[in-house]
Amino acid sequence: MEHGGIERRELFKRAGVGSAALASFPALAGAAWAQDDDDDGGRRRFYFQAASGQAATIGGGESILMSGCGSFSDRSVRGGGEFVHFDGRNIPSPDFIATGSWRATRFLSFEEIGTFGVGVAGVLEMEIRLIPCEGLPVRGARLKIVCNIGVAGLETEPFQQEGFTLTVPGLAPFSPFTPPLGLTFFTRPCEGEGADDEEEDD
Fold first, then answer.
1. What is the pTM of this model?
2. Residue 202: what pLDDT?
């Protein structure tokens, strides 16, 4: 598939999102904030590594690379990750606008579309705090993550592009590109997962 004369693989390469994203998912899953350390065994998990921008293409304006993982229920969310905010009009470039980490602060909503094994298609929204390496934290940002599972026919309706939308006070929203640059995935526990774990411990 091509987009503006550039193959999708090349778009991923330019954004720094490709096979590295796939390789990093196991590492994200092992992060401390992705673990379910309470008694709520029904918590679902989210994982993503993707790029979004203020323009239609990654080279058209300011863009942001984000990664993250965590868990959520119908009342709360915990998780976080990292980000790099940059101007895509000058690629390649060692310069960036801001970089740092982010943390989930408040659960807003989750709309489930359907399940496919332990995979879950849906739309998760939360408030987050951006913590730049330099400067003051930014509060009140909103993060929406969309996970479609096309192979199972599970897609948002009306259709929303796979990826994330980041809304930061005072800035234009960062929205997914078409085609999307990156990966998103929601999961749920296996039925009886806790019981299986107890048997293995014995």
1. 0.80
2. 47
User: pLDDT above 70 covers what percent of the chain?
Assistant: 74
Task: Indicate if the pLDDT at residue 23 is higher than 80.
Answer: no
Other C-beta atoms lying within 10 Å of the C-beta of residue 118: 15
Q: What letters, b where the CB count within 10 A reaches 16 and e where it falls short, cover 8-42?
A: eeebbebbbbbeebeebbeebeebebbebeeeeee
Which phi and psi angles does 115 have, rounded to 5°? -120, 155
**Cβ-proximal residues to 53 (8 Å cutoff; 6+ apart), any chain:** 60, 61, 62, 63, 64, 88, 174, 175, 177
Determine the pLDDT at residue 77: 98
Distances (CA, A) of 88 to 50, 74, 82, 169: 14, 36, 18, 21
Q: Per the structure, how many domains does the chain have?
A: 1
Tokens representing 14 are 């330019």
- Span 38-81, pLDDT tens digits: 445 679 999 999 999 999 999 999 999 999 999 999 999 999 99
Full residue range of the structural domain in which residue 80 is found: 2-33+41-201
**Residue 1 tokens, joined:** 């598939």
Checking if the pLDDT of 30 tops 60, the result is: no
Residue holding tokens 């399940």? 115
Q: CA angle, 108 as apex, 104 and 109 as ends, to 5°?
A: 120
